[in-house]
Predict the structure.
Amino acid sequence: MAHFIAGTATASPAHPAPIVTLTVNPALDVSTSTETLMAEHKMRCGPSRVHPGGGGVNVSRVIERLGGHSTVIYAVGGATGQAYRQLLEEEGLIGRAIGIDGSTRENITIDETSTGKQYRFVLQGPSLTETEWATCLRATESAMRLGGYVVPSGSLAPDMPDDFYARIARRARELGVRCVLDASGEALAEAVDEGVYLVKPSGRELGELVGAPTLTIDEKVEAARELVGRGRVGIVALTLGGDGAVLVTAEGVTRLASPPITVRSTVGAGDSFLGAMVLRLAQGRDLAAAFRAGVAAGAATATTEATELCHRDDVERFERELAGQAA
């Protein structure tokens, strides 16, 4: 059976439980804008922005922005890897960079100003050798602490075994650590079979997991309930974009609408959701409050441009609004 820990009596905002994040396939997120995308034309672009992206790294960046701390572990290499490390250091993130032979990838986001459409180009990352991904695994194990959280998040690098996240989940169970997973495809399926504390799939990812890609919202909720009922997942936090999110546990189902916002970009919204939720749990907040924080952070990120993440003032304001709705 999966290993679920309800909480730690000593966790509080002043003394939170430790959090470790892992990103094995990070990317430099490059964003810009142009009036119109046209084939075979030179398209003059506006100012460009560069941010250190990738699931676990973004989770840690959001935790830091909300006043928390985490240990960030990530694999990087090449000239882009050097730039990536420098950006993280400038944000004050503490952790361990695992050097690899390949060059860290780039993702490109382009806003088409004439239509308001956004185009996202996700490049393939470098392959990791067995020695490299095994080093990532050992570093993550070494950073785990009893009663804490480990957050492996994002895509696996090419040639990595599908059960990589499942290995982390197994080790977390042995060490008394809660595994919080944001993944897709076989990596998600293998980890769920092993058993995890919390998963945060999108509606599409959940549909792929249960073998039914086209589901209504009610069918997605029922699929999440079945996952929890099988005893392999303690909590499903299902993100539904503009439709808000759904929290599913053995005790029941909670739906929460997103605050009314003007969406500028959804890049990083899911990572922000997870970062805020894990931080509030680590601070000893109850699950309902942590869920509200996740929805608040996802919405706050959606109000920012391109690959920018949420700002603390916005997250806390949305948290208060959502708490008022729940009262």
